[in-house]
Each structure stands twice: as C-alpha cells, then as structure tokens.
Amino acid sequence: MKAVLRPSSRPSRHTNRHPVDQVLPPGKLAVYGAQHVLAFYAGAVIVPILLASAIGLTTEQLIHLINADLFTCGIASIIQSVGFWKVGVRLPLLQGVTFTAVSPMIAIGLAAGGGTDGLLVIYGAVLVAGLATFFIAPYFSKLIRFFPPVVTGSVITIIGLALLPVAAGDAVGGAGPTAAPTSGKNMAYALGTLALIVLIQRVFKGFMATIAVLIGLVVGTLVAWAFGDAHFGAVGDAAWAGVTTPFYFGWPKFSIAAIISMVVVMLITAVETTGDVFATGEIVEKRIGREDIARALRADGLATTIGGVFNSFPYTCFAENVGLVRLTRIRSRWVVATAGAIMILIGLVPKAGAIVAGVPHPVLGGAALAMFATVAVVGFQTLAKVDFHDHRNVVIVATSVGLAMYVTAQPQVAQAVPDWAEIIFGSGITLGSLTAIGLNILFHHVGKSFGPAVAGQPGDSVRLDQVNEMSREEFVETFGSLFQGPRWAVERAWEMRPYADTHALRRSFQEALFSGSREEQLELIQAYPRLGSQFVADGLSGEASLRDQSDKGLTFLGDPERDELTAITSAYEDRFGFPLVISVRDAESYERIVEQGRERLGNCENQEHAAALLEIAKIAGYRFDDFVSEANPIHSARTRWSTNR
Fold it and tell me: CB under 8 Å to 587, separation ≥6 — which residues?
C-alpha cells in the first residue's frame, strides 16, 4: 500500500503549478537550453558584426563586442525568464539585441566620427534609453487596450513572415557581401535539415520530438563537416577565457540627438516586445495582463542599461525563440534561464562560441524556416479570434501585413524616405506593427465607434451600435426572417442586448432558439415549408426560403426528382407530425438530401425534434451570414468571389 500511496502523493504538491513554472530535470534543461542557444546564436552576433564593419572597428574589438553581447544576452534572458520584484515577465522568452537599433546605431557612430569615439556615443544613448524604458514601462503597459487580437494577431503574423527572408538568406548560404554563392549543396543542407526536423516530429514522441531542432542542427552540421563545408579552425585560435569588463572601451559620451534617436528605437521595440509577450502567452496558454507587459518592458530597459555598461546594445525578446517554444511545446521558463546561463558561459569562453559559430548558414537556415513560420502560425491562431465580419478588422490586418511585406521584400524603400523615417521603413516588423496599432486606434477609438455592419445594404446598412439601441419591434422587423413563422426566438434574442460583437449577436439567436418550450419549438418547426415545394419555388414561402432551397436546385427539380422528394417528405410528416427540416446549404447534393431524409425516417420523435432544431439553427446561421455579407461590401465581394470559383 505504501508503494502505491507514495508516488501518488508526490505530484499533488505541484498540481496547481503552471507548465511555465515547472523545473525540468537538469539533463533536459541542459539539452533544451542548448537547443535555444543554437537557434539564437546567428541572430545574436549579427548586430555587433554589422555595427563593427560599418563604423570601422578592428577585429579584436569585434571579438570583444561578440563576447560582451553573448554575456549580456545571457544575463538579460535570465532577468526576463526568472524575474524579480516587478522586473521580468517570467515566460520562456529569450533576450537578444534588437535589429531595429542597427541603422540608428550606425548613424550615431558615424556622426561621432566612427571607431571607438562613435561607440562611446552609442553607449551613452543606450544607457539613457534603457533607463527611460525601465521607468516608462508601467505607463506604456496601460496602452494594452490598444492591443486587441486584431493588433496582436497582425503583429505576431508580421514577425513570423518578416523573419522568413532571414531564414531563406541563411538557407542559401548566408546574406550580405560575404555570403557564399547559392548552390544545390546549400539547398540540400537546408532542406535536409528541415526534412529531418519534420521526420523526427512525425516519427517520435516525447523527449526526441522536443529536441528535433537540436538534432537537425547537429546532424546537419556533421554532414556538412564530412563534406568539408563546416569549418572549426577558429576554435583552435580562440582563447579559453575572455572576460568583458564594464566600460571596456572608455566612459560613455552623451549626445541629445543620439539619446532621442535611441529612445525612439526603444519605444518601437516596446511594441515588438508586447507582440512577442502576447504570442508566448498564446503558446503557453497563460493570460497576459497589463502588469505582465510592464514587467517585460522593465526587463528590456534593465537589460539595455546593463548592455550599455558591459559594452553591448539594446535588448528585446527574440521572436526566433518564440517559434521554437511553439514547435517543441516545451513551456518551462527555466529552459530559457538555462539557455541564458549557457550564453554567459559562451561569452566567458570564446572557444565555446567558436564551436557554435561553426554551424553552417544553410543548416541554420533550414531549421529557422520551420521556427519562423511557426511564429506566423501563432499569429493565424490569434487572428482566428477576430470578427472579420467587421470590415474594419479586414482593413487593419490587410494594410499592416501588406506594408510589412512591402518593405521586407523591397528593403531599398528605406533609402527613399527622410533620415528620421528610416528607422520605421527599415523594418517590416516596425512598419507593420505601427500600422496595425495606428489603424486600430483610427477605426476603433477615434470618434464614434459604429461597429460592424450586420444588416441592410451598402450605403443603407444597420450597424451593431444601432442594433443595440433598437426597440423590440425594430429588432424583430430587421431580423425576423432568420426564422420561419413565429417570432418568439427573435424577441428573446433582443432581450440579450447589448451585443459586444457580431459573434455575440449570432449566439443570441441560437440561445433563444434552444431556450423555447417544446410547444414553442414545435410551432416553429411546423412553420418551415416542405423541401422542393412549389410554394417555395414561387416565392410564396419568403425570399429566405427561396434562397435556402435554390442552393442545391430544389426549386428547379424535374418531375421524377420532385416526386421522389415529395414521397419522402410526406412519409416523414405522417410519421412525426412536422415537416422534414434540412439545412440545404450544408448538404453536398440533392442525392445526399434524399439519403438523409430516408435515414431520419427511422429515428424516434424526440430525436427528430432535436434534429429539426439543429437544422433550423444552421439555416438561421446561413441567413445571418447573408445579412452580414449584404451589409458589408468587402465581405460580400469575398463571398461572391469564393462562390464563383
């Protein structure tokens, strides 16, 4: 008995612990943490490489920047994932240098004369911007009401889509002037790594499936090494220890223009961080509130300040690793904390960094294709919660994603705008995110919010706020044709006002239908016309019935088909006392309608009563969609296009 009770009592202490807070065994923490580091490494070191090249730093200075970057990345990731006081969101979010800061930092460095002098002015701006972000975090978090699913879903989708070209660049051998030429071998490495990750996910379960990316990177690297395409010569040249010291390059210098530029960078980065936090919250199934955003932004600010002290740069949550969390389904924040510890180690041991740097670009690109696309999928899942019957939401998503892809596909666009606008147009993520936020404010917060059009015709439509203000008589007159005959269901739906959105309005009709008494429901069922009846074909049963039954040609049946259907509906009505109700638009064909009628003849009366109500609910749903599509020009055009395909 003791052997039974002892194990069962152990998990009870952790029953209420969220998967995010679970501490995994040390071995798994190490493996999962290493997987995050490998997925993160290339993105982590690219910023110091680009900056050093642009402002004219030496190779020795670049090596120190990379070590300092990795060291501070580790600290920042631990702060964000572990958290203390009101700092750190305590989610599996890995921190890295934001790409948004690259162009402004290069501009600041060159304006200050380049080299070390330029670097010191950059660090002065980074320090002040980090402190500013830390202190404005609670005020920025109050703007969470401006981040509904239509905004967060757009931003998350944009992040995933905008990162895909980065993965594609790695997959063909790396981007930039030093990139290797595109070749079939590079494609083989990239697609082979991707295929191996997919295969592991399909064949294996449990631990093996969760480290699919790590296995893909290791195997891909070994294969490339066997063919002479992975090089680790730098490992022998690298030192065993390399400690970054505060203000290694000298005391920072402060410039008002540089500080303003970097504060703007951090405000834009705050938007991206907010999107990443919401994305991770969706993945780990943890609700994100105002305080969570404030904690995440405080961590960004503190990490950026530490970066200014330890010779690094502005920090934000890395979307690359958000995709990895979704792909592996490992939600523990302690995995990211372990990854942070590994990065600190790599930052202190240059040889370890040289080994990680030996992963070929095509192998890394193949894994990144899966991870970045997974971020976009999280965005799709968030957008699924959006009411797209409201054409305003269609415009917000379409415009923000379209502009983001515009500058992502054509990066030279940034050269055609004034210098102050380059920071916005230089990043698809930045432009798309700001567009989504701005359009959401314009459509949903500026002036009177009329709500989506839910009935009527373009130019003479009825909007949701008007529906909420309707009298019972007006409401019944507007929506009475959703059901045949008696209006009690529509009247009871009116009593459920106000409606928050179109979905709530639709649900009110369904709830009213199923709340009726059996006598009321029977009266409603009996009001529906016979399938294929001449009364329907002549329009005598109403325009709605004519539209329903003409969908599968029941209003244009030949004599044999009409006689066949009449025989079934007559037999059904004789048996149950009410007409055979079928949602014609749900049926695949006339033959399936006949087959369904025959099958239902064998049911009992109670079962058919319930079945008829379900079919009536489906019919009402289609009629409601007709209302919305006719009132909404964009939705109507989309519906007509899909129908005519």
Answer: 552, 593, 596
